[in-house]
Amino acid sequence: MTKKIFVDTDVVFDLLAKREPFYEYAARLFTNADKQEVIICVSSLCFGNLNYILSKQKTAIEARKILSRFKVLVKVLPVDDKVIELALNSDFGDFEDAIQYYCAIEHGINILVTRNLKDFKHARIPVLTAEEFVKQNE
To answer: Which one of 3.40.50.1010, 2.102.10.10, 3.90.1310.10, 1.10.3720.10 gives the CATH number of domain 3-136?
Structure first.
């Protein structure tokens, strides 16, 4: 069975913006998804965040084109009332991280990939960087 992972917005942005030194492992992670070796899940919030960030660097049309091409690599999970309620009542210092975490939990994803490990200290599932995940699964 193909492994499902939840990927945080920062790792996706590393890929789309080719941010160094993080791009290499983000690209390898999403190449694994393209080869159907892993199923990458992101929250619907991720697309809103990415559109906002990309629209500051590109035109709105270019940002949407980038996101449309990216969309084929991932499964988009909804952020619902329960996820928001869990995030609001959590110990997470960063509300957006709490939403991402509880979106993964509520959809049965048991690995979260982010570059922001410190904000997921209380996670009940493994939280890895893209580099750690890629190296563990080579």
So the answer is: 3.40.50.1010
